[in-house]
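Record pair follows.
FIRST:
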Amino acid sequence: MEKLPDLKQLSNEAKEALIVELWEKIQKLSAILATYEPKLEPEPSPKKTSKNSSTPPSKGFKPNIKPSKIEGSKRQKSLGRAGGGRELHPHPDQTIIAQLKNCPQCGEKVTAATQKLQSVYEKIELPPIRPIITLRERYGGQCACCQTKYVAPVPLGMEPGSPFGSSIQSLVTYLRYTHAISYERLSSIFGEVFGLKISEGAIANLLAKVKTSLDDQVSQILQRLRRAKLICSDETSARVNGQNQWEWVFQNQDVCLHVIRPSRGTGVINEVLAEHRPDIIFAPAMKRLLLRAFIIHRRRSKIDDARLNRYRDNLQERLTGILSLAPHHPDGIRLRKRYGGLIDNLFLFLEDAAIPPTNNSSEQAIRMSVIFRRVTNGFRSEWGRDLFAAVRSVVNTGKRQGLTAYQSIQQALSTDGSIFSPS
């Protein structure tokens, strides 16, 4: 039957026959469809880049960028053209005033009052770099009265032992663990730039002493961490004495603690936090959130509570709807499983303004560790591993107190210093 007949012209018997015929055809088609299994080809996975995965930027290819006219003009200004260049130092060590006493053309006498300032610029030099060596002659003897042997005391920091003081300790630690400079190159730098002969073995002994000196600072960081309401965390791989281990970071806006352990399990969390349990712990997998939620978070200071609650409920409904889908692609299945375990906590940052929407701060804190691992290929000993974690803890905690990396190390190694601001 190619065309449906005019039903008004059919008798009741013909209509019944037509219904039976159509019903039989529907049954045959239904039986065929029941046995049909379509072969769904999975969509190809997107190419992994540094923007959508953990692939480092060095593994990707960046397109060539045409130099802009604005950047070119800025560069020209920085080379000395009028209207640009570096800012002048507010407190120069000395000021040289260049004024004429006579006209360079005819020799007529000129006064300072008739001359106007034409230009101001700086000339910067480094002072001669040389070590300051203090020789200590320590005397002693035996009392003629009671026969007690005695040795004259020395000032704090001048005790016998390593000849290298805290300033050298700070600089070696800074260059080693902030710029990943090898022992061999450190020895060369100090010899050629500072005129100080220091062997690789002496550097190793110096850093072992630094580790002991940093124990108190790391302990303070740990104690503050164990009182924190919010702790963000992330981890990356580390090589220690040829074995795979894991570097953990536990941090918030006040402190940052690095530890390197053989395990990636919860035992490390229990070791670090002991009995303390913060109100919120961010999982390392929580790296991407919905763009709409980010926008709401950025605007939350301008949104009243009632409207914010409506936004949050709407986001939760949308998330529930997305998770109710059944993706076929392996990446989609994995992503659904991940967010399914976080459905109740995914929008906590919209409930508490103190909670950041992403875990970027943890990734930033651990970024230097990844660079250090690639440059040095890891650690040769457990004490070196622990020293690196201590230095990174001090540096990243000092950063949260407004200190540079070098200032953090200097203060941590000083006899009465602390990386924490006085409370």
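SECOND:
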Amino acid sequence: MSISDRILQSQWVLLLQASDNIYFAPVIPNKKLQGAMTYLPHGVSPKDVLMLIDDTVFGSAKVGMCLTAKGIFYKASFEDEQAYLFEHIQQVEADIGILTSSILINGHDELNFSQLDKGAIRALAAFLNECCQGKQATKQTNVNIDAEMQIMIDLFAYFITFSAGQWNARSKEAVSDHFTKLNDKAVHQYVEKLLNEQMRFDYEDLLHRLADLKDKLAYNFRRHMIEQLVYAMALGQVEQDQADLFMTHLCRVSNVSRAVFPDLVKIIYQCLAGEINQKKVSDLNHEQLQACQLLEIQPEVLSEQTLQAAYRKKMADFHPDKYQTLPESVQHLIEQQAQQFNQARAVLKAYLGV
């Protein structure tokens, strides 16, 4: 059954339509669709939008959510747009609190809606679960890979994506470069599957799997694995203190003494930081250096996290929605400044590959 058919048959649609901020095709206002196009990815057209949530105060629809036959596209204020394909969604649930209410995707990705009441949030969660039914049953590729290599790759992927909370171009490239150098067809196939499906892992489950395998793993393999995983933490920009804690967990679970690696985290982080910082300053072109200057970011500390923090700080002061009562000429100047911040962020995001 198609998503369009599910919408027609859903018992939740009437409740959702009662909200002033939720629209269903074919009666979505063109102005709302134009606003949503600012965060919808390339290749998604207005006619693909089956449902739209406008989560703005003034009705621009530049913040909110769109639903298409492929999945959910979401944008929060001062945040990057997010995409959730139905085939990757296992569960949608409402997270109702005393002050805030939100939607949880797969138990961890949070979608906040400031303009929807708690009843609408509950109805939306139930509706999205209906839309997801049957969409997860995509064909899975079975790959015959040794259990020890699989846990190594899975843990590596977990730490690479830990800080960002999701896969991005940089983390995919790091995993691909690291493991496809091995002359092992099964490893190549598993890494390709992992990247294509953007597989996600639960840390506790990974530790349990490692504990079950430790007696079958040679000591040298366990030691080498820990070294490689600390490297993954550094590549994934895990905070150094957190990396030290992760390493302690891994040593305990794999039965390798922590004393074997007295300064491993410190050494890897220092070496990798020096290499990255030197590469960043030398690699940045004039436009990228100007973007750093505009957002007040030191080039040597440029990362996905520092970029996002600097952009939020700037937009908090210059966001056009805060100056609706000022003269139009002043609003225009503020809007131009906000556009410059957006352009600077786009330049640096392209450089970082996110």
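COMMENT: The radius of gyration is 23 Å.
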